Amino acid sequence: MTVAVLSGLIRPLVEAQLPPEIAPRWYTSIDELHTLAPEAEIGWFDLDAKAPMAEAVRRGEKLRWLNSIYAGLDFLPLDLLQQRGVTITNGAGINATTIAEYVVMGMLTMAKGYREVVRAQERREWLLDSPGKRELAGTRALLLGYGAIGKLIKPRLEAFEVEVSVVRRSGGEGALGPDEWRARLGEFDWVILAVPATPETDGMIGAEELAAMKADAVLVNIARGAVVDQDALVAALEDKRIGGAFLDVTTPEPLPAEHKLWSLDNAHITMHLSGRAQDKMFIRSAERFLANCRRYVAGEPLEPIFDPARGY
């Protein structure tokens, strides 16, 4: 029998449909996970806390397949997983729809000054003019990252008549390559970050990139906080050298209550909620996991594969 160590949270969604060759062991606490992890050939070790997940991976010396609902797995001991030859499947694309919707929502919120509208309602004040007068139609967006999320962002923005230029690692097919986009930053009204967290993307938006952006351009980050030099961003926002920032991610998370970003009117912080703004995440994840279980017992390739060497 193939032992699978799985969270009790997904038990109602998968137990009755697991292949008979797979023997599940359910955990409902960190202690149970750490006790069961050494038995696991298949592991779905997801927790809200990342450090205990990493410890479970270290204990899982029999692991052959690790599954996760998370798309970014940079908090795990990836070198160890690579050394052990563990196949890793992640949550790439599971939350893509809701995150793409969040990008559109954020851009509209910034364009229409909607936060000021909400504040006016709370004051019971009838505004006589719109606090935001920007239209998305006719604007230009630079989309860095064209994975599962980026591929959904682009058509949604194009439906609003936004001209979208894509940046991806491989370039080609009309996309800008990693060495081309910086020289063109000043052309865009929106700079959208949808890249994976890797050493290559760490701090890719810094003081120089912010200085190259248009004075009214808005930075939208639904990638990882580490992709942006946050101190440089705060300085640019304070000096109003860019139009604003819509940040679903920050460094660290949670953002400390005393951090300057909270008090800046041209910064919108959405507490990494974009992927959670839905009710289908666990259902999609369970369906994908069950399909991969059937492939696993049949000796077929799993998907989507996370490459620990690349970081996505």
Summarize the structure.
The chain is α/β, with parallel strands linked by helices and 312 residues long. It is 31% helix and 15% strand. The chain is built from 10 helices and 11 strands.
Written account of the structure:
Helix content is 31%, strand content 15%. It contains ten helices and eleven strands. The strands form two sheets. Strands 7-6-8-9-10-11 form a six-stranded parallel beta sheet, covered by helices on one side. The chain is elongated, with a radius of gyration of 21 Å. The chain starts with a strand and ends in a 14-residue tail after the last helix.
* Mean pLDDT across residues: 96
**Strand percent estimate:** 5-15%
- Please give the domain count: 2
CATH architecture of the largest domain: 3-Layer(aba) Sandwich
For the largest beta sheet, what order do the strands appear in spatially? 7-6-8-9-10-11
- Percentage of residues in helical conformation: 25-40%
Tell me the total number of β-strands.
Answer: 11
Unreliable stretches covering 5 or more consecutive residues: none
Shape: elongated
